[in-house]
Design a protein that fits this description.
The protein contains 8 helices and 13 strands. The chain has 295 residues and is α/β, with parallel strands linked by helices. The longest helix has 16 residues. It binds guanosine-5'-triphosphate, magnesium ion and zinc ion.
Length: 295
């Protein structure tokens, strides 16, 4: 007898999908009809499946997605945790700001985790992002320090970890979930970068309402909200500008080279961090140069 169940895809390997249901993990293939429709199940998808007695089954349909990322492929994320570090491989603020803006465009909550605080507490990064209203945590995944506050923030969500290779995403998950042993990689000492140890996205279930996804390093991570970001709406993705922009002289001020711009004044006073404004300008000119973003 086949039973119909709904569950979440935790992992997909070689045409098999591991679906978490209330009767356990079911190993599924996608039904031929889905493939014909060109529908690819993603990790994170909520799916309806038909289960056999031996806990194998078929994915019948993919339920509507809240959001979806293409590289790495993952759906229905509640939060993106950007893992950063001031110790090698040092994270560039522009990368952080791009991910934060794109996630915000998709309506996905963002938090920032400064890892490797045993080597460098990342004071500058902490100050910059604390001033944006984004939640910032400081941890050492290696020494298992500072984890409680971050863990509390994960409750009730599917959180995808992202960040440049070698920043410690997999080490952090191993520290947060003692039952898990993900593979981690050394930093290449010559170039000070990670080695892209994690190659696939995988969701780990921390508890009944807490899910964490390990993902490959940042270079493979693109958020498809790109094409929805325009010169007009870009500033709405920088919450640290909000309290100043009502005082701009021009309605609809783009905060680029305009006189009477209260955002530029705030940058000059140090009330908005220079690196944040630099990222804004860089994204703005990227949009100008590419009238229609392509994937
Ligand atoms: N000093 C220090 N080293 C750490 C910390 N966390 C991770 N590392 C080290 O950083 C290196 C990379 O860690 P990973 O967890 O593999 O990094 P990752 O972000 O998963 O990298 P990719 O899978 O390549 O994207 C390893 O040598 C870890 O031991 C930390 O808190 N402090
Ligand atoms: Mg990894
Ligand atoms: Zn302005």
């Amino acid at each position: 007898m086949n039973e119909i169940k709904t569950g979440r895809i935790l992992k997909g390997i070689g045409g098999f999908y591991y679906v978490d249901t209330d009767i356990g993990i079911v190993t599924c293939r996608a039904r031929g009809k889905l493939r014909k429709l060109g529908e690819t199940p993603y990790v994170g998808d909520s799916v309806n499946i038909s289960v056999h007695n031996d806990m194998t089954g078929y994915i019948l349909e993919i339920n509507e997605r809240k959001n979806v990322m293409i590289r790495p492929p993952i759906a229905n994320i509640d939060m993106i945790a950007i893992i950063v570090s001031k110790a090698p491989p040092c994270t560039d603020t522009y990368f952080i700001d791009r991910i934060a803006a794109m996630a915000t465009k998709k309506g996905i909550e963002v938090c920032i985790v400064i890892n490797k605080c045993d080597e460098d507490i990342g004071q500058e990064l902490f100050d910059i992002y604390n001033s944006t209203g984004i939640s910032v945590f400081r941890v050492s995944a290696k020494n298992k320090e500072g984890l409680d506050e971050f863990k509390a923030h994960l409750a009730g969500k599917l959180t995808a970890l992202t960040g440049n290779s070698g920043v410690g995403k997999s080490t952090l998950i191993n520290a947060v979930l003692p039952s898990v042993t993900l593979q981690t990689g050394e930093i290449n000492e010559k170039i000070g970068r990670g080695r892209h140890t994690t190659r696939q996205v995988e969701i780990l279930k921390a508890s009944e309402d807490m899910w964490i996804a390990d993902t490959p390093g940042f270079s493979a991570f693109d958020i498809t909200a790109k094409e929805e970001i325009t010169k007009e709406n870009l500033k709405t993705l920088f919450p640290d500008f909000f309290e100043f922009e009502n005082d701009c002289q021009y309605i609809g001020c783009s905060h680029i080279n305009t006189s009477g711009c209260a955002v530029i004044d705030a940058v000059n006073r140090g009330d908005i961090r220079a690196s944040r404004y630099e990222s804004y300008k860089k994204m703005f000119s990227e949009i100008e140069e590419t009238p229609k973003y392509k994937r």
